[in-house]
Request: fold
Amino acid sequence: MAGEKINKKKCLGQMEIMAEIKLAKKEERQADFSNKTLADLSIVFDKIKFGLNLENAFVLGPVFFSEIVSNGDFNLKNIQINGSLYLARSEIKGNLILEGAKINGTVNLVGAKIDKNLLGRGMINTGFLSLAKTEIDGDVILENAEVYSANYSGLAIRGDLFLDSSEIKGTLNLSKISVDGILDLEGATIGKDLIISEARIKKEKTDTTRAKIGGRKIS
Reply:
């Protein structure tokens, strides 16, 4: 987010965010923060009835969801987050949309359940991207995504992509992805195709023999 001019007077705080989520439930619509600037976002043990729209939003800190349930899509298309994205052990009864997202931190979806698709074409993050132990009923599209290593206060975090023990019922598309670290597919189950054509995995050769692939491997 370097170089962006942020008007802090128009920056939404946690109370304003929760008020919009409450109003959206009452009005039976998606909570809408599209094109808004948020200080940060933290929701734990809650139900977001009609989903969340954060398309083109700026978040000045981390985004943290833990054990939440959403009955609609989570739209984070083109979001910019100056921190990590945490969505572990949450259930999204729709799509998780991360296309074009720029996340200055790790992305942790460990143990999440997504009833439709994870759409992350062209997303960028620094630090690991973990889909370990996730259950995804549709496709995972990470085409042209970029996972960079990071250094936070002297602590190096390698840009690994973890898919170990994940269950993806559709296709896993990693074509043209760039990963600074490793791609871990140990124990992953992929119902349809695994697409890794033109993938750039820097640390070591990817072992796909430890994954169960129901369709074709396209490399």
